[in-house]
Amino acid sequence: MRGLASRMRQWVAEQWAHLREARSSIVATAYGVSLLVHLAILGMLTVAGVLMGREVARSIEASIVDTALPDLERLDATELLETDLEATLDPVLAKTAPRFSPRIVEDIAEPDPELQIDPLSVAPSMLLPSATTLSTRVELRGDGAEHVDGVEGAVDRLALEILRQLDKGRVLVVWMFDASGSLHAERERLAEHIGKVYENVLARPEGSLAHEGGLLTMVVAFGSGRKTMTEEPTDDTAAIISAIQGVPLDETGEETTFQTVLDVARRWGSFKKDKEPYRTMAILVTDEVGDDEEKLEPAIAAAKKSDMPVYVLGNSALFGRAEGYMDYTDPKTGQFYRRLPVRQGPESVALEQIRLPFWYQGPQHTELDAGFGPHALSRLAATTGGIYFVTRMGSSRPTFDPSGMREYRPDWVSAGQYRAAASRSPLRSAVLAAAQITQQNLPGQPSLVFPTAGTPQFKEAMERNQTIAARVMYTVEEALGPIQSAASYRDRETSRRWQAHYDLMRARLLAVKIRCYEYDWACAQMKVNPRPFDNEKSNAWRLEPDSEIHYSPSAQRAGEEARELLERVMTEHRGTPWAVLAQRELRDPFGFKWVETYVPPPPPPSDNGGAARKKNQPNANGPAAPVPKL
After folding, report:
1. Has residue 11 got a pLDDT over 70?
2. Is the predicted pLDDT of residue 608 greater than 70, yes or no?
3. Cys staple from 530: which of 84, 454, 472, 576, with CB 3.0 to 4.6 Å?
4. Is the Cβ–Cβ distance between 592 and 544 less than 8 Å?
5. Euclidean distance between CA atoms 181 and 350, whole angstroms
């Protein structure tokens, strides 16, 4: 800028000299006009340059603020097991920092402080090959998530990932196994197939370095604490399999997933043997999100600092839900437990879906596969250059084609970045607000069957169920408020995921609102003008869905809008969870009509030998065994 100012002063001096020498007033005037025009242009360019420089400076400063991470220093073995990162950085937090249970804790040897490792470039994703296509090396950059056919498919893919790392030098693979009971059977299956990973690697020309001690492996178990299952990195496949089979059962129900990644990155992220550096890749095997999600960002920072990609073998997250359920057989007692709660979602930072029961008999779709892993684990894999392998999908719930779901990928950003992006978008803010309003235990559908009209029992049932409908209506209208106010921003949204969120929410909330109005109207009509039965055998009235909306012309128009929105979701987002939910809502019309029916009386109570069976059951009168924590 100083050079530019100097040249400007020199140029101005020359122009004034020309003016002084001009003999003609016309020439002088021309020079004056030219001078003024050039001065104006140069002035604007100077101001623009200064502003641009300031903008670039602000941009650089902002990027530094956004990406700056705390310096993660190494901890000794005791600190590694008994403290967390926040307590290390903030002494105040140390007073309340949780301590790990000694159930699965052993010292992890302190690394040599002089050991260093060469930088590792971000690992691109690959296509999904089978065991018969391992010779096909396809280099494609993926989005951090891939679907594989169970453990067997993951074994094939992991062999390819190890080969890719061996192309760059020696490799240390650190397997991290969730030691909870829910993964016992999976660990056994994986142990049976783990040898194939190393067989496939050793059989390939690219894996020649592995024959010379260039491929070593560690096995770590984690639950409430962590335990090394191999004394030191080894290339003995039999020892690796034995270590996996020996993972002890952790009964605490606590998974310190991200603290384990943090520890592994610090301990083995920069590993050398005989002064030879190794590139470390971590493989995490789990079926839950983990109980220390607050350690996600420190774990990412430590892994990136060590250039350690993290690969995850896990479940598909639940669509718009945090808690799922899992059938479990206790490996010790053989006791079978049905639908024990496990945290398997959501696939995004926050809950982005309304929690609204469907009316009428049929699937409620409270558990849909999201097509992606839980947000924290997916972000861990994608951000460190690894891959989240979806190895387990719901066996009894709808699943979706991975290729069709790619454009609906969640935002794998930090919680702070997620909130900032949402705050800048009225539509996304409205979606999150509506989702939050409905995260409660709504009473669901009121009864559709009533006793004889005009009787005290009829009036009591009518009042009780109209109260239920009013309760649902109150929540639906509250959630509709932000959704309706953001309608003008719908077409400005570029994300297919957020478009689908908004359209489905608006359609479903409108549909349920109309149903509530129609239900209340039908009940009021029957209370004011009780109808007699035409069939002498009838003893009850039932509300059935009706294509005609009776409440008002405005309700009819709203019903048409809801129908059009639901059809739009089914058409524009075919093959996705949004389309499934829209189809379910659209299955039944929004209106109601009264139909007389016959309800058989309930059978008399019968013990059917239950007391005798209970008496003969072992420990029938003793304390019940505690339900295991997964």
Report:
1. no
2. no
3. 454
4. yes
5. 28
Pairwise CA distance, residues 175 & 628, whole Å? 25
Widest pairwise Cα distance in the chain = 128
Half-sphere exposure of 485 (CA within 13 A, CB side): 14
Separation between Cα atoms, residue 76 and residue 227, nearest integer Å: 15
Task: Output the pTM of the full model.
Answer: 0.72
- What residue spans of 128-183 are helical by DSSP H? 150-166
Q: What tens digit of pLDDT does each residue of 86-144 get?
A: 333 333 223 322 322 333 333 333 333 332 322 222 222 222 222 222 223 333 333 45
Q: Hey, which residues does 226 pair with through a beta bridge?
A: 222
pLDDT tens profile 169-179: 999 999 999 98
258: helix, strand or coil:
helix
Query: What amino acid occupies position 283?
Result: I
Beta strand segments in 418-576, E: 449-450, 540-546
β-bridge pairing 323-329 and 336-343: antiparallel
Given the structure tokens 């059989």, which residue do they identify? 203
How many alpha carbons lie under 13 Å from residue 395 in its C-beta half-sphere? 5
Cross-strand pairs, 591: 546
Which positions ≥6 away from 267 have C-beta within 8 Å? Answer: 80, 108, 109, 111
Give the separation between CA 359 and CA 443, rounded to whole angstroms: 11
Q: Nearest CA to 372 among 396, 327, 330, 404?
A: 404
How confident is residue 624, by pLDDT bands cut at 50, 70 and 90? low
Which helix (H) or strand (E) segment holds residue 391: the answer is strand 388-392
Picking from 285, 279, 277, the residue whose alpha carbon sits closest to that of residue 308 is: 279
pLDDT of residue 418: 94
Query: What phi and psi, each to the nearest 5 degrees, are found at residue 219?
Result: -125, 125
Paired residues of 178 in beta bridges: 222
* SS3 assignment, position 353: coil
Distance of CA 143 to the CA centre of its chain: 14
Q: Looking at the predicted structure, is the pLDDT value of residue 192 above 60?
A: yes
- Please state which of the ranges 177-186, 368-377, 545-554 shows the lowest mean pLDDT: 177-186
3-class state of residue 332 by DSSP: coil
Instruction: Look up residue 57 and give its amino acid.
Output: A
CA angle 240, 245, 248 (to 5 degrees): 120
**Residue with the two structure tokens 């470390």:** 280
Residue 367 · residue 394 · CB < 8 Å: yes
Task: Read off the tokens for 571.
Answer: 């058409």
